[in-house]
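B., you asked whether I could sanity-check this one before it goes into the benchmark set. Here's the sequence:
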Amino acid sequence: MMNSISLVCLLMWTGVSSFMFDNLTQYVNSHEEEFIETLRKWVSIESDSSDISKRSDLHRMMEVTAEKLRLIGGAVEMVDIGMQTISNGSTIELPKVVTAQFGSDATKHTVCIYGHVDVQPAKKEDGWATDPYQLTDINGNLYGRGASDNKAPVLAWIHTVEVYKALNIELPVNVKFIIEGMEETGSDGLEAMIVAQKDTFFSDVDYIIISDCGWLSRRPALTYGTRGNCYFLAEVSGPKKDLHSGVYGGTVIEPMIDLIGIMDKLISPSGKILIPGIREAVAPLSDEEWKIYQDIEFDVERYKEDIGISELMYNNKVDLLAHRWRHPTLSIHGIEGAFSAPGTKTVIPAKVTAKFSIRQVPNMDPAVVEKQVTDYLNSVFAKRKSPNKLNVTMVIGAKPWLADVNNPLYEAGKAAAKRVFNVDPDMIREGGTIPIARSFQDVTGKSIIMLPIGGFDDGLHSQNEKISRYNYIEGTKLFIAYLHEVSQIKKN
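And here's what the prediction gave me:
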């Protein structure tokens, strides 16, 4: 068997630039521990974008990312995206966005890889079995905060370029990276940067690839849609201060009771959204989409078991997936101002604020939904004839994203998955929201694919987040194969 040094010499001598998949994947296999060690170093950096006390760690994470890209020969820039205003009114520097470029051959396609290296908060006392910032290998699973979301996928893409370069094999496409550090808190400053660089950094980009998602089962998947999100605050205020329920109970109309009363009118026990116009706006289910859902590998019983419940709203696969991905849902998340600490407190809160959201799907428009929700809640509240005041505000209005599954990008994804895993991938959508996909689409007009390598059981945002060695290493091979398949797409 030819070792990697001999192969490098041969390729340098012959100038071969054709696709040599076996040689590339052999290199990945022989450097598995090295790749995992790099992930271990990245996970050890507490790049929590929600905690300003860890902002120095986040800046360091961006520097480490930039340096890794420089080491493999990238033309790297660290783009200043300005300042963040925090709750006390002061400002703090946003982490710079890292961009990199490999190749500028006008005869080739150019792909842009998006990823992020910030993470959700994590503490061992939250219920982690291991230190969340010390990558721990247990039975082939690599546990650590950010391991799957999104440090391993970002590294897998970097390793992809690294492997081509290490073997002196010419990249089949030009590759650009855009890596941010504020995704988990809303990508502050990123969209403005995309707009500013639309005609520069993005001018020669043909396709944008996002790997910030996961598979639905043990079968690999290609993601072609995400739901958007409209997040609302409904505030009911009454007395000028909190009141003692023994002294004032029975004499005042309580804001909390008003609030719970109107929240009860948002959704039925069976999950039907009661706000007029919401369900009517949903795009109809096509025969093609129904067929896609039929073909997906998904175990309803295991899904129930993983959640820890005995009954779901829907018992068949197609209905369940459709309501998870392509129908709007309404969730009530909490009530601010209510007493929620342990023990008892006989208080009548003077002001309470409910937090709820509606996941957006095609063909819903957040601006229209905002008016529908506001008008409906005001009408429901008016019927209570309460002296209290209601104020409804929408604080997030993220649109859904949907791609054409017949786009050549997806055909390339199917071919790459077949080459690496020897199965056809599931075509899936995400129930959650990845706003940057819609931003890329609206601002740049480029075709986008979501190409996940995360496992269905990785526990994103939860305790004991992990990525398996298998998904990390085989995912790197998937990306290697994908670049080749994209290079085969005919240029316009």
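One thing to flag: The CA atoms of residues 275 and 376 lie 6 Å apart. Otherwise nothing jumped out at me.
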